[in-house]
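Sequence in, structure out. Go.
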Amino acid sequence: MASHRRPKQAGQAYASVLTATAAAAVALSTQSASADPLPDPDKKGVQAQVDRLYEEATQATEKYNGAKEKAGQLQEQVDALQDSAARKQGGLNELRNRLGSIAAAQYRTGGLDPSLQLLLTSDPDSYLERASALDQLSARQVASLEEYRSQQRDLEQRRSQAADKLKDLKETREELADRKTAIQGKLAEAQRLLNTMTAKERAERAAEEERANRSSERVELGNQASASQRAAQAFEAAKSRVGMPYVWGATGPNSFDCSGLTSWAFNQAGVSIPRTSQAQAEVGTRINSLGEMKPGDLIIMRTDLSHVGFYAGNGQILHAPKPGAQVRYESIARSGMPFMWGVRIG
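Output:
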């Protein structure tokens, strides 16, 4: 009996040691998790964080695109105002020279009109305010002086407008730089997280992305009747870009972001549409039901309207989805982005 009991006691002791060791390991693991602020190193956890950062980067890209488009428009307005002000200054100089000629002629014929003496002083603004009080002017001179005064006021207004636009342009360029920094930061953080994965895990992720890209080669699109000739032409142009890489801020022809693809494709069809997904969501005719969509319609995704692509038929979207991906067909249901509405153009 004694020899039977000793092994049993030894087994119980061993089990107790294992239990204590396991408990200690759990306790240490819990303490480490609560003290370590770094992301969960689990592969799925890292991939989810990378995907979230890519999504945030694409959303920031549309804001960047909007700021860039605004900066371009402001620059055009500034250039036009400055060019107009330069032409106006030239006209004003010509008019002032003409009035000077009148003064010279009067001087040769026996004296200089007091009003013209005042004009030729260093303070013509003061002259223009007081000229109306002088009754020595002829009707022709009065008309010339009034034209001078009107053009001078117009010149000052254009210069003021140009200064305001330059201020807006400076602020918009600062916003553009901030947006660019935010995008690059998110992409850098995503890359840092990818680097924490093992070579095998990165290879598996790359293979999964490659399978998604290759799925475009065998997608079933069903009915290809587009809503309009222009939409059909734009859709054909987009289809010719399948396999091109996603690059934030790119508008083609060899790389695109989401709205860069759609705006480029419609441009090939002779239709100009806004640059950003949010602005594209507000053009054309809105289609609220996915069942009413036709190939070539724009499809607006995400609640903040930060993604756009072409409806391709049979529940598929043709789009430039995210960093690291290519222009491809994808199931709308599997895209992970909620459908908001469609836009029919043409």
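Check: The first strand starts at residue 285 and ends at 287. The two ends are 96 Å apart (CA to CA).
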